[in-house]
Amino acid sequence: MKLNNAVLSQSLPGYALPQYDRQAMARRSRQQPTWLHFGAGNLFRAFPAVLAQRLLNAGETDTGVLCCEAYDTDAVTQFLRPYDDLTLSVSLLADGSMEKEVVGSIAQSLTLPQDRCRVEEIFRAPSLQMVSFTITEKGYAVNAAVKEDMGRAPGEAQTLLGALAACCLARFEACGAPLALVSMDNCSQNGEKLREGFFAVLDAWKAAGHVSPEAYAWAQEKLSFPWSMIDKITPRPHESVQKALAADGWEGMDIQVTGKNTYIAPFVNTEKPQYLVIEDDFPAGRPPLEKAGVLFTSRDTVNAVERMKVCTCLNPLHTALAIFGCLLGHTSIAGEMADPDLRDFVTTMAYEEGMPVVIDPGVIEPKAFLEEVLTQRFPNPFIPDTPQRIATDTSQKLPIRFGVDIGLHLERGTAGQLQRMPLVLAGWLRYLKAVDDQGQPFTCSPDPLLEKVQPIAQAIPFGTQATQEDFGSLLEDASIWGVDLKAAGLSALVVEDFNRLNQGPGAVRTTLEQLRKG
């Protein structure tokens, strides 16, 4: 059994199938496009594409989504087009069962720069309402390649940001209709990041005489850049899912690594819980995605949801598990949640230290969100996520994941009561020694500050006691911690905690066990 259009006419027990005429949908979508998406990777195929299918199945829309890949074009040429732009989406439930769906909402798949003319044609269509993005935070950066585009004419742009700006100018010339450019990447203030990258290019072209005052004014007034918060763990394709699909009779479900080091397959595996909250700023209208569970609200509320998740209810717990998981030799988040000491640590930290200062966004109840994280999402043994992956770039995450809530405790005068948050910070210093709790060496995950901070921790011998002076000015560096730990009155506690964790083999386990037992 092969994944292609022919399979849609077959009976597939255990699989949800498109409930619409796919050929008619694709024809309408190409002729009168409403939704174009950049970034054809795993998250798009597991979430936005499935949302589009929900609307099509319910008869809420008659057009699907067109997608374009500019970074890793193998995602389209090897994993969409050979399968008639179909995807198998597999939701992995905590009880080990799978919910499987053939997703057919992708009406056309494109690549840049190869399909530049077609992409520009889509932008020229007055029917186009929204262009969305899952290109990772790095995709919005004004890097060297984008700066080269800033020195070119719009028609010669090579990067996604350059092509996007050029296509928007083509839209101005063709119809002048407004448009929403919607980042759906998992980063704070994502709409602002997209806007800054876009206008960096447009400003340079305007200065060079490539953009008329009228076109520039149109871009400022008629293009919107809504903020969003997206949350759905979508790890790389897993062998266990591949085997299950093969057992169902599917051929060609091999997992491959592209030239850009993307792990990809004709299927995606993901958790079932999902959240997408978007600022409701769509000047050209939009698909009725609220019918598929998307929350539309104000920018302030989107920001509040992001803070609830990133500062309190999910990301800090992930980082705590990453640090202590690496020290204790764990290789999965679910495995850590089966460890009584670690489960108790993150649960108590969340409820006793996080929830008292949590931002309540109104549209999602923080306690219910947290409960789902602790009881369903993190313990799911079928989501193959690792502490080693999450430990990547920890120095860039601490200011938001811990500094914000510590700052709120400082404002309330309750910072002196904190136990577990300071222990996580001390745990990271202990982690930087690259020696696990048994005294065995391990390799720290990539981090841009590793060369700067690791020598400080490694200069303190395993099994010895440190002083605040041993850490130099590190404890006062608010760019790492989010607050000046010394000024906050927490530096002595962090060093004391570090010493507890650094006493020798078994010290990390003993510390966490003592905390659990009170």
From TrEMBL:
UniProt-listed Pfam families: Mannitol_dh, Mannitol_dh_C
Keywords tagged on the record: Oxidoreductase
Residue ranges of domain Mannitol dehydrogenase C-terminal in the record: 302-499
Protein name: Mannitol dehydrogenase family protein
Signal peptide: none
Source species, domain of life: Bacteria
Membrane spanning stretches: none
Organism placement in taxonomy: Bacteria, Bacillati, Bacillota, Clostridia, Eubacteriales
Organism: Candidatus Acutalibacter ornithocaccae
MF GO annotations: mannitol-1-phosphate 5-dehydrogenase activity
Domain Mannitol dehydrogenase N-terminal intervals: 36-291
Keyword Oxidoreductase appears in the UniProt entry: yes
Reaction(s) this enzyme catalyzes, per UniProt: D-mannitol 1-phosphate + NAD(+) = beta-D-fructose 6-phosphate + NADH + H(+)
